[in-house]
């Protein structure tokens, strides 16, 4: 899989409704994963979206999540730029450069869903998410 760059939107509990709306607007394939699917069943966040992705026929990719507990949701500041793919050396190189002089919110390390993932804000205040998936066979 080639490395991909796309917007990642954060919502305050209505990610499902927003992404269903964007699917109506742009068409395409929508995949939504809840917090319950990743070990948080029985919590207030269980039915909220941990990760969503819309891939459109025009080649647009839009990703999203409902803000997790403890993370403030502020409309107007509710986006990140997402870098994802399976080329570990390429993506780690981007991470190393983006995080220099910035703030690391989530270190780039293996996560509960099996991928290596990190979040940082670069020295210019732009939030970045880097996800390194397992190579496709």
From TrEMBL:
Gene3D superfamilies, sorted: 2,3-Dihydroxybiphenyl 1,2-Dioxygenase, domain 1 (3.10.180.10)
One Pfam family recorded for the sequence: Glyoxalase
Record-annotated Glyoxalase/fosfomycin resistance/dioxygenase domain positions: 5-130
Protein name: VOC family protein
């Amino acid at each position: 899989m080639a490395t991909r760059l796309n917007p990642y939107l954060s919502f305050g509990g209505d990610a499902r409704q927003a992404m269903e709306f964007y699917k109506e607007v742009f068409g395409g394939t929508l995949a939504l994963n809840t917090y319950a699917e990743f070990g948080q069943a029985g919590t207030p966040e269980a039915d909220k979206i941990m990760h969503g992705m819309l891939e459109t026929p025009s080649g647009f990719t839009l990703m999203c999540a409902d803000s997790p507990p403890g993370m403030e949701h502020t409309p107007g500041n509710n986006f990140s730029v997402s870098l994802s793919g399976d080329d570990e050396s390429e993506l780690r190189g981007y991470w190393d450069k983006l995080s220099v002089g910035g703030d690391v919110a989530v270190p780039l390390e293996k996560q509960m869903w099996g991928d290596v993932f990190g979040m940082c804000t670069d020295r210019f205040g732009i939030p970045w998410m880097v996800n390194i998936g397992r190579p496709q066979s």
